[in-house]
Hints:
Blueprint: H1 2-24, E1 26-30, E2 36-37, E3 44-48, E4 58-64, E5 69-75, E6 85-90, E7 96-103, E8 106-114, E9 120-129, E10 134-143, E11 149-152, E12 155-162, E13 165-172, E14 175-184, E15 189-196, E16 199-206, E17 212-215, H2 218-225
Antiparallel strand pairs: 1-2, 1-3, 3-4, 4-5, 5-6, 6-7, 7-8, 8-9, 9-10, 10-11, 11-12, 12-13, 13-14, 14-15, 15-16, 16-17
Amino acid sequence: MKKSILFILLVIISTGLSAQINMVSKKIFLDSLNHETTSPNFTYTRVITNYSQKATRYVVTDFYKNGRKKMTGATLDRDILKKDGEFICYYKNGAKESVVNYSEDHKSGKEISWYENQSKKWEKQHFWDPKTKKSQTLILNFWDANKNQTVVDGNGEYEETDGSITQKGVIKDGLKEGIWRGNDNARKISFIDNYNKGILISGISIDEKNVQFSYSSLNEKQNINRGSKLKGN
Protein backbone atom coordinates (compact mmCIF):
# COMPACT_ATOMS: atom_id res chain seq x y z
CA MET A 1 0.00 0.00 0.00
CA LYS A 2 2.79 2.40 0.97
CA LYS A 3 4.65 1.56 -2.25
CA SER A 4 1.55 2.33 -4.30
CA ILE A 5 1.09 5.70 -2.60
CA LEU A 6 4.77 6.52 -3.09
CA PHE A 7 4.53 5.58 -6.77
CA ILE A 8 1.48 7.79 -7.25
CA LEU A 9 3.22 10.71 -5.54
CA LEU A 10 6.27 10.29 -7.78
CA VAL A 11 4.06 10.26 -10.87
CA ILE A 12 2.28 13.44 -9.72
CA ILE A 13 5.59 15.21 -8.99
CA SER A 14 7.09 14.13 -12.31
CA THR A 15 4.01 15.25 -14.23
CA GLY A 16 4.01 18.58 -12.38
CA LEU A 17 7.66 19.23 -13.16
CA SER A 18 7.16 18.33 -16.81
CA ALA A 19 4.17 20.66 -17.05
CA GLN A 20 6.17 23.44 -15.39
CA ILE A 21 9.03 23.04 -17.85
CA ASN A 22 6.66 23.07 -20.81
CA MET A 23 4.89 26.13 -19.40
CA VAL A 24 8.09 28.11 -18.86
CA SER A 25 9.83 27.32 -22.16
CA LYS A 26 8.64 27.49 -25.76
CA LYS A 27 10.02 25.58 -28.72
CA ILE A 28 9.49 26.65 -32.32
CA PHE A 29 10.72 25.34 -35.65
CA LEU A 30 12.56 27.53 -38.20
CA ASP A 31 13.40 27.13 -41.88
CA SER A 32 16.72 28.05 -43.52
CA LEU A 33 15.69 31.74 -43.60
CA ASN A 34 14.77 31.71 -39.89
CA HIS A 35 11.05 31.86 -40.65
CA GLU A 36 8.75 29.87 -38.41
CA THR A 37 7.65 26.58 -39.94
CA THR A 38 6.20 23.24 -38.91
CA SER A 39 7.96 19.97 -38.12
CA PRO A 40 9.38 17.99 -39.91
CA ASN A 41 10.03 20.68 -42.55
CA PHE A 42 12.49 22.61 -40.42
CA THR A 43 16.19 23.48 -40.44
CA TYR A 44 16.62 24.80 -36.89
CA THR A 45 14.76 24.80 -33.59
CA ARG A 46 14.51 27.74 -31.19
CA VAL A 47 13.91 27.48 -27.46
CA ILE A 48 12.87 30.46 -25.30
CA THR A 49 13.58 29.08 -21.86
CA ASN A 50 11.62 31.55 -19.72
CA TYR A 51 8.81 32.24 -22.20
CA SER A 52 5.87 32.30 -19.77
CA GLN A 53 7.58 34.55 -17.24
CA LYS A 54 7.25 38.32 -17.32
CA ALA A 55 10.81 39.52 -17.87
CA THR A 56 12.80 42.32 -19.49
CA ARG A 57 15.00 39.78 -21.32
CA TYR A 58 14.39 36.22 -22.45
CA VAL A 59 17.05 33.57 -23.00
CA VAL A 60 16.93 32.24 -26.56
CA THR A 61 18.90 29.32 -28.01
CA ASP A 62 18.84 28.00 -31.57
CA PHE A 63 19.81 24.41 -32.36
CA TYR A 64 20.84 22.59 -35.51
CA LYS A 65 18.98 19.41 -36.43
CA ASN A 66 21.90 17.42 -34.99
CA GLY A 67 21.09 18.90 -31.57
CA ARG A 68 24.12 21.16 -31.33
CA LYS A 69 23.82 24.85 -30.52
CA LYS A 70 23.67 27.29 -33.41
CA MET A 71 23.23 30.50 -31.41
CA THR A 72 22.59 31.57 -27.84
CA GLY A 73 21.84 34.93 -26.24
CA ALA A 74 18.96 37.06 -24.94
CA THR A 75 16.02 38.82 -26.58
CA LEU A 76 13.99 41.79 -25.38
CA ASP A 77 10.80 40.35 -26.88
CA ARG A 78 9.78 36.73 -26.37
CA ASP A 79 7.88 36.57 -29.68
CA ILE A 80 10.20 38.64 -31.87
CA LEU A 81 13.98 38.23 -31.79
CA LYS A 82 15.36 41.55 -30.52
CA LYS A 83 18.92 40.77 -29.57
CA ASP A 84 20.39 42.33 -26.44
CA GLY A 85 23.69 41.53 -24.75
CA GLU A 86 26.26 38.94 -25.80
CA PHE A 87 25.43 36.49 -28.58
CA ILE A 88 27.55 33.46 -29.42
CA CYS A 89 27.16 31.62 -32.73
CA TYR A 90 28.46 28.14 -33.56
CA TYR A 91 29.20 26.10 -36.65
CA LYS A 92 27.32 22.86 -37.22
CA ASN A 93 30.28 20.85 -35.88
CA GLY A 94 30.11 22.70 -32.56
CA ALA A 95 33.07 25.04 -33.21
CA LYS A 96 32.61 28.69 -32.23
CA GLU A 97 31.81 31.00 -35.15
CA SER A 98 31.44 34.46 -33.61
CA VAL A 99 30.96 36.49 -30.44
CA VAL A 100 29.26 39.88 -30.62
CA ASN A 101 27.39 42.19 -28.28
CA TYR A 102 24.01 43.78 -29.07
CA SER A 103 22.18 46.81 -27.73
CA GLU A 104 18.46 47.00 -28.56
CA ASP A 105 18.93 44.64 -31.54
CA HIS A 106 21.92 46.58 -32.90
CA LYS A 107 25.51 45.39 -32.83
CA SER A 108 27.47 47.40 -30.28
CA GLY A 109 31.05 46.85 -29.20
CA LYS A 110 33.66 44.39 -30.42
CA GLU A 111 32.90 41.42 -32.65
CA ILE A 112 35.23 38.47 -33.16
CA SER A 113 34.74 35.79 -35.81
CA TRP A 114 36.55 32.52 -36.52
CA TYR A 115 36.79 30.12 -39.45
CA GLU A 116 35.47 26.61 -38.93
CA ASN A 117 39.00 25.36 -38.17
CA GLN A 118 39.07 27.98 -35.36
CA SER A 119 41.70 30.24 -36.93
CA LYS A 120 40.69 33.87 -36.46
CA LYS A 121 38.74 35.54 -39.29
CA TRP A 122 38.12 39.14 -38.25
CA GLU A 123 37.86 41.68 -35.47
CA LYS A 124 35.32 44.50 -35.84
CA GLN A 125 34.14 47.39 -33.71
CA HIS A 126 30.46 48.38 -33.82
CA PHE A 127 28.99 51.70 -32.71
CA TRP A 128 25.27 52.31 -32.10
CA ASP A 129 23.75 55.63 -31.06
CA PRO A 130 20.23 55.08 -29.66
CA LYS A 131 19.48 58.82 -29.85
CA THR A 132 20.26 59.34 -33.54
CA LYS A 133 19.48 55.69 -34.48
CA LYS A 134 22.73 55.56 -36.45
CA SER A 135 25.27 52.76 -36.51
CA GLN A 136 28.80 52.34 -37.82
CA THR A 137 31.16 49.39 -38.14
CA LEU A 138 34.94 49.57 -38.24
CA ILE A 139 36.92 46.62 -39.63
CA LEU A 140 39.99 46.42 -37.42
CA ASN A 141 41.74 43.21 -38.46
CA PHE A 142 41.12 40.49 -41.05
CA TRP A 143 42.74 37.15 -41.85
CA ASP A 144 42.02 35.15 -45.03
CA ALA A 145 41.37 31.40 -45.06
CA ASN A 146 45.11 30.77 -45.34
CA LYS A 147 45.77 32.69 -42.09
CA ASN A 148 47.28 35.67 -43.92
CA GLN A 149 46.42 38.95 -42.19
CA THR A 150 45.40 41.37 -44.95
CA VAL A 151 43.86 44.10 -42.75
CA VAL A 152 45.98 45.41 -39.88
CA ASP A 153 44.77 48.10 -37.47
CA GLY A 154 42.01 49.15 -39.83
CA ASN A 155 44.02 49.28 -43.06
CA GLY A 156 44.47 46.79 -45.91
CA GLU A 157 42.52 44.59 -48.31
CA TYR A 158 39.30 42.92 -47.20
CA GLU A 159 36.90 40.39 -48.68
CA GLU A 160 33.61 39.19 -47.31
CA THR A 161 30.78 36.80 -48.07
CA ASP A 162 27.29 37.45 -46.76
CA GLY A 163 24.85 34.82 -47.98
CA SER A 164 25.04 34.83 -51.79
CA ILE A 165 26.95 38.14 -51.96
CA THR A 166 30.75 38.20 -52.23
CA GLN A 167 32.74 41.44 -52.43
CA LYS A 168 36.24 42.76 -51.86
CA GLY A 169 38.12 46.03 -51.74
CA VAL A 170 40.28 48.37 -49.67
CA ILE A 171 39.81 49.25 -46.01
CA LYS A 172 41.16 52.60 -44.78
CA ASP A 173 40.85 53.66 -41.15
CA GLY A 174 38.41 50.80 -40.64
CA LEU A 175 36.03 51.86 -43.45
CA LYS A 176 35.45 50.86 -47.06
CA GLU A 177 37.35 53.13 -49.44
CA GLY A 178 37.53 53.44 -53.21
CA ILE A 179 36.46 50.77 -55.69
CA TRP A 180 34.81 47.57 -54.45
CA ARG A 181 33.88 44.71 -56.77
CA GLY A 182 31.44 41.92 -56.05
CA ASN A 183 28.88 39.37 -57.18
CA ASP A 184 25.40 38.37 -56.07
CA ASN A 185 25.08 34.75 -57.17
CA ALA A 186 21.43 34.48 -56.13
CA ARG A 187 20.35 37.38 -58.36
CA LYS A 188 23.04 36.65 -60.96
CA ILE A 189 24.45 40.16 -60.95
CA SER A 190 27.91 41.70 -60.60
CA PHE A 191 28.56 45.18 -59.24
CA ILE A 192 31.23 47.86 -58.90
CA ASP A 193 30.84 50.26 -55.97
CA ASN A 194 32.71 53.42 -55.08
CA TYR A 195 33.08 54.32 -51.39
CA ASN A 196 34.28 57.44 -49.59
CA LYS A 197 35.00 56.96 -45.89
CA GLY A 198 32.60 54.03 -45.70
CA ILE A 199 29.74 55.77 -47.55
CA LEU A 200 28.57 54.42 -50.91
CA ILE A 201 28.63 57.36 -53.33
CA SER A 202 28.14 55.61 -56.68
CA GLY A 203 27.89 52.21 -58.25
CA ILE A 204 26.92 50.08 -61.23
CA SER A 205 25.26 46.67 -61.27
CA ILE A 206 25.24 44.36 -64.29
CA ASP A 207 22.66 41.58 -64.62
CA GLU A 208 22.91 38.29 -66.52
CA LYS A 209 21.61 39.97 -69.70
CA ASN A 210 24.41 42.54 -69.46
CA VAL A 211 21.91 45.30 -68.60
CA GLN A 212 23.49 47.97 -66.40
CA PHE A 213 21.90 50.04 -63.66
CA SER A 214 23.56 52.96 -61.90
CA TYR A 215 22.91 54.14 -58.35
CA SER A 216 24.26 56.80 -56.03
CA SER A 217 23.27 55.51 -52.61
CA LEU A 218 22.82 52.29 -50.67
CA ASN A 219 19.03 52.72 -50.75
CA GLU A 220 19.02 52.86 -54.55
CA LYS A 221 21.20 49.77 -54.71
CA GLN A 222 18.85 47.88 -52.41
CA ASN A 223 15.87 48.89 -54.56
CA ILE A 224 17.62 47.44 -57.60
CA ASN A 225 18.21 44.22 -55.72
CA ARG A 226 14.47 44.07 -55.00
CA GLY A 227 13.75 44.31 -58.70
CA SER A 228 12.63 47.94 -58.78
CA LYS A 229 13.02 49.83 -62.07
CA LEU A 230 15.72 52.46 -61.82
CA LYS A 231 17.56 54.44 -64.45
CA GLY A 232 19.55 52.27 -66.80
CA ASN A 233 22.62 52.94 -68.91
